[in-house]
Amino acid sequence: MLSYDVGKTWSKRAYSLNGTGEYARSIVLEDDTIVTVHDGVGQGDKENLCILRWKALPREEVEKHGFFTPTGVETGL
Predict the structure, then answer these.
(1) Which segments of the chain are extended strands (E)?
(2) Each residue of 13-71: pLDDT tens digit?
(3) Containing structural domain, residue 42
């Protein structure tokens, strides 16, 4: 899911980067690319660490499917 306002609202549609992995963490770099690291579950019989560098869809594209505002959740910011 994508947020363009530091977690106040989230895309109603979930986007999959590569269909595997469970425990992911992401950071946004200065050039607006995102680096995601995840556990690589489903990548064969070994434990892997997967690193993906990607760009989020433009807000206008994501907006076509709508956003929602979570209730009862603190953003911690």
Answers:
(1) 10-11, 25-28, 34-38, 50-54, 67-68
(2) 887 776 666 678 888 899 989 998 888 766 565 667 888 899 988 889 999 999 999 88
(3) 10-68
User: Alpha-carbon distance 43 to 58, whole Å?
Assistant: 29
> Does residue 77 lie within any of the structural domains?
no
3-state secondary structure at position 31: coil
Q: What is the CB neighbour count within 10 angstroms for residue 43?
A: 15
37 and 24 Cβ atoms separated by less than 8 Å: yes
Closest CA to 19 of 46, 45, 50: 50
Secondary structure (3-state) at 60: helix
